[in-house]
Each structure stands twice: as C-alpha cells, then as structure tokens.
Amino acid sequence: MRKLMTRIGVLAAAMLAGASFAMAAEANPGACRAGTLYLTFDTGSMSQAELIARTLRKHHIRATFFLANEPTINHDSSLDPTWAPYWKSLAADGHAFGTHTFDHVYLRSVKGGKVVMRPQFGAQGGKDVAMTEESFCAELRRSAQAFQSMTGQPMVPLWRAPGGHTSPQTLAWAEQCGFKHVGWAPAGFLGDELSSERYPNKELLDRALRDLRDGDITMAHLGIWSRKDPWAPGVLEPLISGLEQKGFCFATLREHPQYKNWITQRGPVQAGQSSQSGQSSQSGAQSQTSASGSKQ
Fold first, then answer.
1. Distances (CA, A) of 262 to 20, 119, 215
2. Tens digit of pLDDT for each residue in 261-287?
C-alpha cells in the first residue's frame, strides 16, 4: 500500500507539472513553435550547482539530474548529507532525478560474459572490479537510496553511464532491475568538460544555439574540475535565453516520448527495493558516446 501511495503521489506530481506546462503553452501558443528540449545535468564538482539552480528557477525550467557521489569543491561528496538542502530545493522545484551510479563507475570491458568496471571514487576507486548483475544493480540503487534518504522523494527509473559507456550486458542488467539508460543527442553534448583553451565558451554557445533540434537531450555538469573558464557562468543563461527566443520549451525526461511510458510503467525507484525482473531491450539513449570520458 505504501509503495502504491508513493507511486500515485509521484504520478500526481508529474501530472501537475505537465498541466502547468500545458497551461503555459496554451497562454502563449507560439512559445513552443521550435519544439521541446530536455536539459540534463550530471553531478561533477558541484562548483556551479547553485548558479545552475538559480538560472533554471529564473526561467521556470525543470530539468533532469543524474546523481553520483563525487568529490566537491566543499571537500565533501555530492551525496553527503551536507548537500541535502540543495537536493531538497531542486526536488521542490519539480526537477527529475536519475542515477549516475554511486561511485561514478566506468565500464572497462566485457569478455566472455564477465563485466569489468572501474569506480572513479569510493573504496575501490581507480581499481578494476568484476561485477555481477546483483552488484551492478546495487551500485545503481545506492544513489537512489542516498537521494531518497535526504529528500524523502524517489528517483525516476533512469540511469546514465559515466562517460556514456555501456554494453548490451550492462543495458540488459539495468533494465532487469528497473532502469533505462539515457544518453544525449550529438548536439546535446554541451562541451563543459572540454578544455576552455581549445573550446571557449562562445564557441560552445554558438554551436548549441545553431545545432539543437526538437527532442534533443542535452548533457552538462554541475561543475568540472579541469575547465579553467567555467561553462555555466558564461553559457547557461544566454543559451536558455537564446533557445527561448528561437521558440523552444523545456521539460524533464518524465515527459520525453521515449521514456515517459517506461517511467509510468515502472514507477519510482524505492529505497531498499530488491531487483525486479523486466523485459530487456535496447538502450533508449540517443547517443552512447561522450567527446570526453573523464571529468578530471
């Protein structure tokens, strides 16, 4: 009963968000003439987390966040309780949240049915680790459990592989335990993890404004350690304003035609929930490749 009531509550919130979006579009029929885009953000260093939250709030935009437990500029980790107020505020704003694995685990190889991963952080950080379906699903769920313990809200049943690196085996495992993979459109790679010397903010802004199309999923981070000229302060506000002027609207992946039925059918991810069987299928990601596989 508790699980049913939680699912009903989450679906009601999603319907309310969709209704608000529909009313806004009806009030301004030309607002979405160019289509809908889906902004997504991975955790990273969290150096730009507050700025990104304020910018989205200013424009009344709901986005989707993929969470891993990564080191932050505050000398803690992004899923430590110290970040609970931040995640609670984003949840209250109506954003959606998926898992990015807990220890930011990269796929290394799949040979003979053996899956080798390398956690970037945590107790096994920097070491190759052989994973089973059970341990892989547990890794996906750890982020969901940490998020729900801080916010009281469950994640949606979506995940994003670090670096976008997947295999048929990891995609099937994830779907068996309830998570569908989300990549990003080629034009949706916003380039915030690239060198600012080689890819200055103006170039990244101009490229995104030129190339993004209806239905595209974008990908950026809440902070990147290595980029000297941070992306968000120079790009996010003019990017959103420019896209709005072109006639784009924005929505979370709860409304994306490729994922909304999956989310409705699977329901929210419950903390402590055991793996559930599901029909394996190909990943729903628009692109499984990143121009850079590291956020160092």
1. 22, 28, 17
2. 999 999 999 866 543 433 333 333 343
